[in-house]
Amino acid sequence: MITRESVLEALRHVRDPELNRSVVELGMVRDVVIDGDSVRLSVVLTVAGCPLKARIEEDVVNTIKQLGAKEVHVTFGAMTDEERAALAARLKGEQAKALESAQGSVPPLLAPGSPTVFIAVASGKGGVGKSTVAVNLAVALARAGHRVGLIDADIYGFSVPDLLGIDQRPTVIDDVILPVTRFGVKVMSMGFFVEENTPVIWRGPMLGKMLRHFFSDVHWGDLDYLILDLPPGTGDVALDVHQLLPQSKEILVTTPHATAAFVAARAGAMALRTHHEILGVVENMAYVTCSACGHKGPIFGQGGGEKLARELGTELLAQLPLAQPPARDIDDPDFAPGLYPADSEMGRLYARIAARIDEKCRARA
Ligand SMILES: Nc1ncnc2c1ncn2[C@@H]1O[C@H](COP(=O)(O)OP(=O)(O)OP(=O)(O)O)[C@@H](O)[C@H]1O
């Protein structure tokens, strides 16, 4: 027999996709009324117009039907301002607990004992594919079952939302920001907070502050990896990230051209000075594969990645070909202009990089 208690018990397993908490635990399930094999209830969302409403409804209905209910009627409402403030305070409290023993300005997730591995993706100059590597690496780690976050720290030149095809904005509960989840990766970008394509004209200190907010005010939940797409070069923001994340590891992206590798070496030298462990070098746009005969020919020079890895005393993680993600219907909800499918050659190369990185990080842990 279906009872109010059995419904609530079953719904404990339904999670709010953004907060990754049980909808019952979050106090979202109200007014459960049972009438034979018909169940009525209301679900209060954190914010009206929550983009994940349809998914929550589907999960709630399916779960209750599994109890044997023939009809399930769900009505939706939104939390009151007071309820939302209380929830935000609770989320902040949890975040604060994780940093109880953190010192100074060390961000929450870096509290001693936190298992999250930070990986900054850096390059000497722009346009070498740093953001593409950051995005595809993050998704490859998520595809392998890891819990992954991605911060677009390239504040002036944010491109992560575009590469991942994100047009959604993050949900904000009072002053707590919930990252946007796409392809299993929790994403935060400056691009979410500026008007369509307007230039960011903030100066260094404000940018540093923004980054700190990305750590302290974003509800990341538990993460295995947090990937940071750094701005190119060795400017203020990159330096800020280095200081902000003393335990971060680093990946350097370069093209095979000797000049690109020379410039990338400067970014690498900064990582070494700030005692960041360099996990390896990714040489991007290393060659083109002839579609007729399969021959792999260099196009932007040769040897830059290997030379850079040698100079920095690290390994060359991969040489990636010049290849665009396959064109897809732009209205396809799974379309992401900068993401390579898991079953493509590039997808497999990224899976290999992710596995190697995981192996290295685990070995250290
Ligand atoms: N291996 C590749 N093959 C073909 N195109 C690529 C490859 N890697 C990146 N690109 C393309 O090159 C362009 C620049 O890539 P991306 O934005 O990732 O570079 P970036 O180094 O992050 O640049 P910036 O720092 O200026 O943002 C994009 O259009 C991207 O789709």
TrEMBL record:
Organism annotation: Calditerricola satsumensis
Transmembrane segments: none
Protein name (Swiss-Prot/TrEMBL): Iron-sulfur cluster carrier protein
Keywords carried by this UniProt record: ATP-binding, Hydrolase, Iron, Iron-sulfur, Metal-binding, Nucleotide-binding
Family stated for the protein in its record: In the N-terminal section; belongs to the MIP18 family. In the C-terminal section; belongs to the Mrp/NBP35 ATP-binding proteins family.
GO molecular function: 4 iron, 4 sulfur cluster binding; ATP binding; ATP hydrolysis activity; ATP-dependent FeS chaperone activity; metal ion binding
KW Iron-sulfur (keyword) present: yes
HAMAP family linked to this entry: Mrp_NBP35
Keyword Nucleotide-binding assigned: yes
Domain MIP18 family-like: 4-73
InterPro entries on file: FSCA_dom_sf, MIP18-like, Mrp-like_CS, Mrp/NBP35_ATP-bd, NUBPL-like, P-loop_NTPase, YlxH/NBP35
